[in-house]
Amino acid sequence: MAWQHIRITRFGGPEVLELAEQPTIPDPGPGEKVRSLLDRLGQRLFVIGEDAALANLMKRAANALTATTLECLGEVLALLQKGGVERHLAYDTLTNSLFDSRVHKSYGAKIIEGRYSPPGMSIPLATKDMRLALTQAEHNAVPMPVVSLVHDRLVAMAARGWDELDWSALGLLAAVDAGVSKA
Fold it and tell me: Maximum CA pair distance of the chain?
């Protein structure tokens, strides 16, 4: 009997997985027996392709999107707080209206509550993922200026000694920069 190896990537850390099951992305394409098992285990199964590099690219791209979302969410919450809107009310309004995605809800709650430890995605790991996404973007001649900015913000967090924090601490950095938190 020949063994077939597959790689499975799941989106979201523990805090996101608590809200709902996340898609599973196997690579390379599993046989039908494995696929039927994975279909029962995950919310939805996406077969990205036979090349494992495609699933890796998908994961890096999703992490880049999450990181840029965290940066923007942190900036907006800092603006609202500094402008006089109570932080929990700001979070509640945003995440129960136009921005009610799992990413906004789970990471927004971490930002509002200051729960950056233990990290689901540490600063060094997030920095590495942004670097890999930017390397792939450069290879494919795809400008990603916002991801580059977030990479630099993660490096700034490491320079502050925040390596052991979760990447949602991008919201903390925005609050510190805005003068609404001392850290």
Answer: 66
Q: Which residues contact 22 (CB under 8 A, 6 or more apart)?
A: 10, 11, 12, 16, 42, 43, 102
- Calpha distance 129→113 (Å, rounded): 25
Instruction: Round to whole Å and give the CA distance between 39 and 26.
Output: 11
Q: Whole-prediction pTM value? A: 0.82
Cα gap 123→151, rounded to integer Å = 10
Q: State whether the Cα torsion 121-16-7-129 is positive or negative.
A: negative
Count other Cβ atoms within 10 Å, centred on residue 70: 29
Q: How many residues does the chain have?
A: 183
CATH number for the domain running over 52-178: 1.10.1040.10
Q: What distance in Å separates the CA atoms of residue 150 and residue 127, rounded to the nearest whole number? A: 9
Residue pLDDT tens, the chain, 183 long: 555 555 566 666 655 445 445 555 555 455 666 667 767 776 667 778 778 888 889 999 999 999 999 999 999 999 999 999 999 999 999 999 999 999 999 999 999 999 999 999 999 999 999 999 999 999 999 999 999 999 999 999 999 999 999 999 999 999 999 999 997
